[in-house]
Design goal:
The chain is mainly alpha-helical and 778 residues long. Among the domains are: 139 residues, P-loop containing nucleotide triphosphate hydrolases (Rossmann fold), CATH 3.40.50; 89 residues; 80 residues, Winged helix-like DNA-binding domain superfamily/Winged helix DNA-binding domain (Arc Repressor Mutant, subunit A), CATH 1.10.10; 155 residues, Serine Threonine Protein Phosphatase 5, Tetratricopeptide repeat; 64 residues, Arc Repressor Mutant, subunit A. The strands form two sheets. Strands 2-3-4-1-5 form a five-stranded parallel beta sheet, sandwiched between helices. The chain is globular.
């Protein structure tokens, strides 16, 4: 930004580059300034706080007849000079011995002014004191501040976090049309065209563009620095070199502040603003992968040099300084760090202290967590345990990598075995197979932990349809478990041999193995094994239409209920449903399968969800609900694709009923084309949507449609949009909703920003299009 912009009093600079995206944020910040006198924009360095503040000032200029004034504090080094910087920006002279703050209050006392305090983070205390004085002494002044750390003015500060721009997922979103919707991509294109005027996103470079924006995490400064490199690097080469992002992303604009000319200088600035304790915690937090919670930080980052009781306060300080972000999900508060900041901290950690100690504590903590979840598996904490492992997936993998790279075989075997439910009941089969193979390939003396890992590896292989690999693992497990007297592993190996026979279609042989394992597991008091073996027994007997199937399934359900267990209970309910359907009772089959599938809502178990939805498709076909059944089969295909296996892995009996169902539906729906159309409709659903669809009557759930832009607006904004379409003015809408006209003004502004419209007529047309199911073309 350079020259002073026109448009009334003030000193806002004219923009040298275009302002890309952030329309929603711009509207929200303007709305906040309508009700709050102090708004602080926080966020990581380079995220675009200053630009958003200036653009907000430009957009809000008409509301402040006495001007919008920018006070850039970047070059101010001494706290006592803050007041003078404000006076200089406002052009307020002080030739008396009156304190500068009093002179400012006198000058601004009756003026309706917006002050932009930019770059406050290194002068937080001085800024907080002055801002508080100005707000108390100048009733018509409003202040918009930018800082990597909140000013922390009690009761008077509204904090607005500026996040990085949304980025595409290179694995799933690389089409030109999809990429054009992302603000990070639009910013890259805009800045790249300044370097290479003909730059466009096309089918050839779209994947590289998606990868570049994703790797730069949507940080505007990083994107701009990367675009500048297109002078001398091809886009593909730029993406390849991002492994050294701090060396690559240099050479920004000469007019920028020195700390904004390279990515490293920008983060150095943040690092230097931290206390030594904050710096130490920041660097140690770099060992986490994919986020962490406070308990993990306390266990891993604390030692004699950084007391555990200090971690909470220091974490809070790092959040306040936008080094880490607090993220709440599923009732758990977690923290994450942008990869750019994490890589920087990782480099600092290597020079700051012995990184190996911190990494060892990380491995020990997450290894113990995995073991704890496995030990409590057959109780009421299954969903929470799997959710915890899912949230810490990256940390679990980092811990496993640490075990394997340092050849700590015993720890590696223990951990891959403890994660068995994450692999097999949480949609991570391929990852589980990889880690089990790596752990079992380590050279080491014969260890008892290896026997457990062998039967877990066999289980994973079977779910993937690789029964030959499973047999090899089970043979070694039998030998090793016998050597160590490991009765549980011997029993589980025997049960899984029953699974091998089951999947090969020999149900009688399978029952021989299951029955033999059942008595021994009961003797061992192994609830997990009893339930695992029991539901498989019930399913095998159901397929044989053996009347004992119902009895065995109910026994499993009883044990599950006594222990508060859910996962095996859902499978026992499936066995009840399967038995009922095969014996001509579709209503009972539907009831049992729906009860099992309802439990699946709390899990991420693709296998369990798929087989239960499959059964409901068979029941729907029996009940002549052909459209519904075909959509369910389409949804199932999508679920199997996610985990890389199929129903054929579970034996010819289930696969045979699937084929019969397909043939019947194709005939009833009038041919292959109509049947495929229903499959395609169902295939648009993910696992969660498929479960919801399967749990409702076909009349209650319409065929799935792509999401519409109605979902962009909040319920209140949708209500206001409908009233706009009715032709009501803002005052009339305010009267109808019993709110102030200013509140309605804010809603209208945010609706226009979110929908990227410029008039009420466009909103009315959009509402009409959404109501008819045909989006307006505007």
């Amino acid at each position: 930004m350079d020259e002073i912009s026109e448009g009334g009093p003030g000193n806002l600079p004219n923009a040298v580059t275009s302002f890309v995206g952030r329309r929603s944020e711009l509207a929200e910040v303007r709305g906040l300034l309508g009700s709050a006198r102090l708004v602080t924009l926080t966020g990581a360095g380079g995220v675009g706080k200053s630009r958003l503040a200036v653009e907000t000032g430009i957009a809000a200029r008409s509301a402040f007849p006495d001007g919008v004034w920018l006070i850039d504090l970047a070059a101010v080094r001494e706290p006592e000079l803050v007041e003078h910087a404000v006076a200089t920006a406002l052009g307020v002279a002080n030739h008396s011995n009156q304190p500068a703050a009093d002179r400012l209050i006198e000058y601004l006392g009756r003026r309706q002014t917006l002050l932009l305090f930019d770059n406050c983070e290194h002068l937080v205390q001085a800024c907080a004191v002055l801002v508080d004085q100005l707000l108390r002494g100048c009733p018509r002044v409003r202040i918009l501040a930018t800082s990597r750390q909140v000013l922390d003015i009690i009761g008077g500060e509204y904090v607005y976090q500026v996040l990085p721009l949304p980025v595409p997922d290179p694995d799933t979103e690389s089409s030109v049309e999809v990429l054009s919707r992302y603000e990070s991509v639009r910013l890259l294109v805009d800045r790249a065209r300044a370097i290479t005027p003909g730059f466009v996103v096309d089918d050839i470079n779209s994947l590289a563009v998606a990868r570049l924006c994703a790797q730069l995490e949507g940080i505007p400064l990083a994107i701009e620095l990367a675009a500048a490199r297109l002078r001398s690097l091809h886009l593909d080469a730029l993406v390849e070199r991002l492994a050294d992002r701090f060396g690559l992303l240099t050479g920004g604009s000469r007019s920028a502040l020195p700390r904004q000319r390279t990515l490293r200088a920008l983060i150095d600035w943040s690092y230097d603003l931290c206390t030594p304790e904050e710096q130490l915690l920041w660097t140690r937090l770099s060992v986490f992968s994919g986020g962490f919670d406070l308990q993990a930080a306390e266990h891993i980052c604390a030692d004699d040099g950084l007391p555990r009781e200090r971690i909470l306060d220091l974490t809070d300080h790092l959040v306040a300084q936008s080094i880490i972000q607090a993220v709440e999900g599923s009732g758990l508060l977690r923290f994450r760090m942008l990869m750019t900041l994490q890589e920087y901290a990782g480099e600092r950690l290597k020079t700051h202290e012995n990184v190996e100690n911190v990494r060892d504590r990380h491995q020990e903590y997450y290894g113990a967590l995995a073991v704890q979840v496995a030990a409590n598996w057959s109780g009421p904490g299954q969903e929470a345990g799997l959710a915890r492992l899912r949230a810490d997936r990256g940390n679990m993998e980092s811990a496993l990598e640490r075990c394997i790279s340092t050849r700590r075989t015993q720890r590696a075997l223990s951990m891959v075995s403890a994660l068995r439910h994450h692999w097999c009941a949480d949609g991570a089969l391929s990852e589980g197979r990889r880690w089990l193979d790596l752990a079992l390939a380590l050279d080491a003396p014969r260890l008892p932990e290896r026997a457990t890992a062998l039967w877990v590896a066999a289980w994973v292989s079977l779910l993937q349809g690789d029964d030959s690999a499973a047999e090899v693992r089970l043979t070694e497990c039998d030998e090793l478990a016998g050597e160590f007297g490991d009765q549980v592993s011997l029993c589980m190996a025997r049960s899984l041999r029953g699974t091998v026979a089951f999947f090969r279609g020999d149900l009688r042989a399978a029952l021989g193995h299951f029955d033999a394992a059942s008595a021994r597991l009961a003797e061992q008091g192994d609830v997990e094994g009893v339930l695992f073996n029991g539901f498989q027994t019930a399913i095998a007997r159901a397929l044989l239409q053996d009347h004992q199937a119902e009895q065995v399934a109910r026994q499993v359900i009883a044990v599950s209920e006594r222990n508060g267990e859910q996962w095996a209970r859902a499978r026992a309910l499936y066995a009840l449903g399967l038995y009922a359907w095969l014996n001509g009772d579709p209503d009972q089959a539907k009831s049992a399968a729906r009860a099992g599938l309802q439990i699946q809502r709390g899990f991420n178990d693709h296998v369990g969800a798929a087989v239960m939805i499959e059964l409901l498709a068979w029941v729907s076909t029996t009940n002549a609900e052909y459209d519904h059944a075909a959509r369910l089969l389409g949804a199932i295909q999508s679920i199997w694709g996610v985990i890389g296996t199929s129903l054929t892995a579970f034996g010819p009996h289930l696969a045979g009923y699937h084929t019969q169902c397909e043939q019947e539906l194709q005939r009833r729906l009038g041919g292959a084309e109509a049947f495929q159309a229903r499959l395609d409709e169902g295939g648009r659903m993910d696992r969660r949507q498929a479960i919801s669809y399967a749990l409702n009557d076909p009349e209650a759930v319409a065929a799935p449609e792509p999401a519409t832009t109605v979902e962009v607006l909040t319920p209140r904004q949708q209500q206001v949009a409908r009233l706009v379409a009715e032709g009501l003015s803002n005052r009339q809408i305010a009267e109808r909703l019993v709110v102030s006209t200013r509140t309605v003004d804010g809603h209208i502004e945010r609706i226009l920003a979110k929908l990227e419209f410029s008039s009420r007529a466009q909103v009315a047309a959009w509402v009409a299009g959404a109501a008819s199911g045909v989006p307006a073309s505007l």
